[in-house]
Amino acid sequence: MSDHAQSDLEDDLDWEEWDGKGSFLNHCVAGSIAGIAEHTLMYPFDTVKTHMQCSSCPGQPACPKSVPIQPPGIVQTFRSLATSKGGVSPLRMWRGVHTMFMGCVPAHALYFSSFEVGKKAFGADREGHHFMAAGAAGAISTFFHDSIMAPADTIKQRLQLGYYHGVRDCVKQMLKNEGPFSLYRSFPTTLAMNVPYGFIMVASNESLKKVINPTGEFNLFTSMVSGCGAGAVAASLTTPLDVVKTKLQTQNLGDIRTPPSGSAPTANAPHPNPIVHTPSSSAKNLKIQAAPLRPLHTSPPLFHPNAPPSPCPPTSSSPTYTNGYAAFRAILKEDGFIGLFKGMSPRLITHAPAVAISWTTYEGVKSLISEKGF
């Protein structure tokens, strides 16, 4: 056997007989750190994007009475979210960020480790540009990533909009009122968006790095520039599917909750049965029902002033939109073609630097770990 063939065989055995040490573990650690850096630093812009995509509250019958339409622009939406009753409330921009800590650590560890395996298996690490091979590795790793992140993203978006008291309350109410499937209702649409996104982003990133830095050595500038370019291209092409995904994940929100008759809400009071205001409700009844509304907690609320005053999970397990196609048709009917591109600006602002931060952090940490001999 030639030395070259023997070297290739040894490399294959390193991956196939991974024993929990060495480079594979390095990829997991570096990927987890990259995920935390990406999602936490760009989270406020993701909050703005979610609110812009839900601004008209389509498909939520009770919502127009409780959630006024959000301002259309990035600056206006950001300003509206960051202030509360005339005061500054910057923490509002970070509501639900802890869901990312719980989801992105295992998701990104699996993403980057499977990417490295796929990259080697498909031959994307060879000299030259291998767009399809790199894209295939990105697509496969995206599937593993989203299998973990889909439920976390659903919870995150509902918290961003001002619903529920926290992650535990959100999960409890979703399971009770909508069933376990509600956590994965957008999963097919998420895959339909993120698999092409992952393919385009990874392929573009790998090619850009080879053009800007042919040596292949880690370089901060190269990683940032290629990451920004790849993130911008992939985000712009997949915005319509992101709007559909958001619509699926946040549908049926807006039902108003009131305390049981003869009781007042307290900090630890259980959630009463929700009441939906219908157009046939009399003005007198609306006034009586709305009078006792206030957040069911004593600490200063992080809810947006335009969001419902208390956690408001859906009243039925029957979703308005059961799949992405139904949501897609509703968007076209209610907002027209332009509705498919709601939140595109903050999405670009989020994903371009997010990809740069994520991949630069990943490559940097991986390089540092390798140099230290871990």
TrEMBL record:
It is a multi-pass membrane protein. This is Uncharacterized protein. Residues 252-281, 297-317 are annotated as: Disordered. GO terms for biological process: iron import into the mitochondrion. Residues 302-316 have a biased composition (Pro residues). It is found in: Mitochondrion membrane. One of its GO terms (molecular function) is ferrous iron transmembrane transporter activity. The keyword Mitochondrion applies. It comes from Triparma strigata. Keywords: Membrane, Mitochondrion, Transmembrane, Transmembrane helix, Transport. Solcar repeats lie at residues 22-121, 129-211, 218-368. GO terms for cellular component: mitochondrial membrane. SUPFAM superfamilies: Mitochondrial carrier (SSF103506). InterPro entries: MCP_dom_sf, MCP_transmembrane. Belongs to the mitochondrial carrier (TC 2.A.29) family.
